Amino acid sequence: MSFFGGGNQDRGIDDFIPGFSSTLNNIKSRFFGGGDEQPAPQQQHQQQADGDEDFDSLPNVDHLGPFLRFHDINLQRGTWHGSVLIVVKGRPNRLPVLRYDDNGRQKVARATELDTYEDNVFYRFDLEVALGDPNSGDKAVVYRINCHRAYTFYVPPAGTNSRVFAMSCNGFSSDVENPEEAGGFRPLWDDMMRRHRQRPYHVMLGGGDQLYMDPIFTTNEEIIAWLKMDDRETRVTAPFAESTRTSVTKFCFTTYANHFSNESLHEPFATIPYVFQWDDHDIFDGWGSYPPYLQDCQVFQGIYSVARRFYLLFQQHTTDRNRNRDEPHVWGANGSFSYLKHLGPQIAVLGVDTRSERTLKRIMSPENWDQTFDVINQRLAPSVKHLVVMLAVPIVWPRLELADQAMETIADFSKFAEEKLKVFSNVFGNLPNSGIGEAIGKTGLYKNVMGCFGEPELADDLCDHWTHDNHAEERRRLVHGFQQLAEERRVRVTFLSGDVHCCGAGWFRSKEIQDSRRDPRVMWQIVSSAIINVPPPGMVISMLHRNAHEYDLGDGVTIDEMIEAFKSGDVNGESLDDNTKVLPRRNYSTLEVVRDDTEYGAFALNAFIVAESVERVTDAKPYPIRIEPLL
Hints:
By secondary structure, the chain is an alpha+beta fold.
């Protein structure tokens, strides 16, 4: 499949959304007949834009995309805001133009040039759409770039809330030797799109690891040569040479081009507006949890800077130079990228960048945490009843201590790790491994890099987790900050996370049991991982369940615990016995605000963890989680 202008881009919309032809044809008949034009956004690069009077004659351009991103809902104005990104192969003679329909009014979005790589040009189009009539249901918005095929997305009616689809770990790690045997890309993306056609999602949340950059260490000759330098000091002091930057840039761009053009992702990424945040594999395994001399060396920082460049482009539709246009939705010291977005009058999402500033001793700087709570207090609408906080790594999760395991279990882990690490042996050789990191979503790259620098014993896989001792105080301050916010604003806080390649739910609550609807310490944790990557083996799930008991936060009043989210049994109806807190199935999740059917008339949040069926071709099984509002 071509990365630019792939084989499916000229197919009709009905090939992807059957049954919508009459509605869409009516919209299209208004859509291409001329009309009012929206003023063009400011251009970063001055290239003459065409008028829309000859729109139908604009040539097709060989491109990657489109990729549709959700920006925000302006509750005061009743408008939806988003952007579309395309990457054009070869600079066109005329700027591409995007036209879309807004309540019968035809609008034109002009291209803003963000960046170039070789002969590839990144263009962003900014969209503004009036929310629909509350009495008319979802509003279909059709857009089209030049004369390419049309795409349709949906915005909620004014006064209502977005329906949300959420996923993480959207790819296979290097240790998966046969992705098709592991289920391939399609099953859960196809399942989600079936549901989307029946009742469209308005927003897609990506909780991290939208793709896996780890092969930079096993396939890139420049990086392999660096790893094989004679001694540690030579490697640590080696410059990030221009040839290395060129090679790494090509790797990162090609990885995004291949992954984002996958046939299972093309339609969702073009028709469900996404909100993405990154985790370590969007950079490489374990980023931020390496010792300072390695984390700060020129080669590591060089890889990070290139990965960040393409993360901002493909996932955030921006650049460091251009990000100020997104204020006040985006903030962050030291280059971090956090955001607050309203998904409707009663729900907002907070994306916290937990990678840009991460070190062995901290996850985010106090300055950034202060900025985060300042922005929430300044920007969060008073009507919001649910704040969904995207933390890539779960903040509520069973503790993992290998010392608790019997010797035969340790042997099982070691055998499991050997299989996971075979892919790295040609570069790193064979290193002793406990297997615990590989069992919880690590690829083994982190430990092998540490071994390459002569320090395998310092490779602490668990230091990436919130529950590690290094992060205990920061975790406690974070929990207290959100509990205070909940009490002052009467907003229910829910954490949404991925990373661990299995699914589950937990919560914080007051130590003294009380009515959870009136307890501001109640904050739910939804763990939904992975939509593509493979789950850990049964021995890992057993270990997680043995450690899934109550934990004291250390303040004497708050505990956290996993809940039995899977008491109804496995996806095939079989009993899970006592293992009902963590499920080793590929999965995604959904969120929807609903009116509480009690006398309070408040707004509850219905969450579903949707787990893949055994056959993979039948409907996935939804597991409900009811998140009550804070009264």
